[in-house]
Design a protein that fits this description.
The complex is a heterodimer of chains A (about 110) and B (about 120). Chain A is an all-beta fold and about 110 residues long. Chain A is built from no helices and 11 strands. Chain A is globular and about 45 Å long. Helix content of chain B is about 0%, strand content about 55%. In chain B, strands 2, 4, 5, 6, 9, 12 and 13 form a 7-stranded mixed β-sheet that branches. Chain B has a 4-stranded antiparallel β-sheet with strand order 1-3-8-7, with no helix packed on it. The model of chain B has no long low-confidence stretch (mean pLDDT about 95). The chains are: A mainly beta (about 110), B mainly beta (about 120). At the A-B interface, strand 4, strand 5, strand 9 and strand 10 of A face strand 4, strand 5, strand 10 and strand 11 of B.
């Protein structure tokens, strides 16, 4: 079993739809959490940090449930430009800080 | 402009020929890291560094070496490349915060093919 698991996708949604991505992590030493976006094998870029209190940035909302070891990302009013791969990222404290990526979920938004 | 640079961007080489991929950042970040990305496997961490002269293994360190002699540079060395190291490589850097790393900024990637 992978340490960070995501919905495999792909998700195909029409413009304007709401879509939710889930991610689970298995190591309780995980300390910080992020969603990154990656376009077509380009470099990943930060979308949002994820906090237990939940955080929102425009159409994007991220949530962390430490008890269930679960992270979510909600995208409202999807745009064509949201088409990308969404990567769940966990930082684990092992004395140093290891970075673990989920395999990613591909999103296609269609007109 | 704040950035992470990698060189070369594309490299085709042959088995056993030593190579170095350079990575440099101009943001005074403590944390630097190398990843490889393969289809179906996502990004996997090769090595990371918490600061100058401090490096540690990620999940897939076999066949790779790194060094951190200066804060801005973190080269990745393949002493004897093999075809299973054909991959897309990313370097990243970040500030360190109490809980771990802050936003990681990625270089543009190096596409390596080992024949």
């Amino acid at each position: 079993r992978k340490e960070v698991e995501q919905d495999p996708g792909p998700f195909n949604v029409p413009e304007g739809a709401t879509v939710a991505f889930n991610c689970t992590y298995s190591n309780s030493a995980s300390q910080s959490f992020f969603w990154y976006r990656q376009d077509c094998r380009k470099e990943p870029k930060l979308l949002m940090s994820v906090y237990s209190s939940g955080n929102e940035d425009g159409r994007f909302t991220a949530q962390l449930n430490r008890a269930s070891q679960y992270i979510s990302l909600l995208i409202r009013d999807s745009k064509l430009s949201d088409s990308a791969t969404y990567l769940c990222v966990v930082i684990r404290n092992t004395g140093g800080f290891k970075t673990i990526f989920g395999a990613g979920t591909r999103l296609f938004v269609k007109a | 402009e704040a950035q992470v640079t990698q060189n070369p961007r594309y490299l085709i080489t042959v088995t056993g020929k030593k190579l170095t991929v350079t990575c440099s950042q101009n943001m005074n970040h403590e944390y630097m890291s190398w990843y490889r990305q393969d289809p179906g496997l996502g990004l996997r961490q090769i090595y990371y560094s918490m600061n100058v002269e401090v490096t540690d293994k990620g999940d897939v360190p076999e066949g790779y070496k790194v060094s951190r002699k200066e804060k801005r540079n973190f080269p990745l060395i393949l002493e004897s490349p093999s075809p299973n190291q054909t991959s897309l490589y990313f370097c990243a850097s970040s500030l360190l915060i109490k809980q771990g790393t802050d936003t990681q900024y990625f270089g543009p990637g190096t596409r390596l093919t080992v024949l």
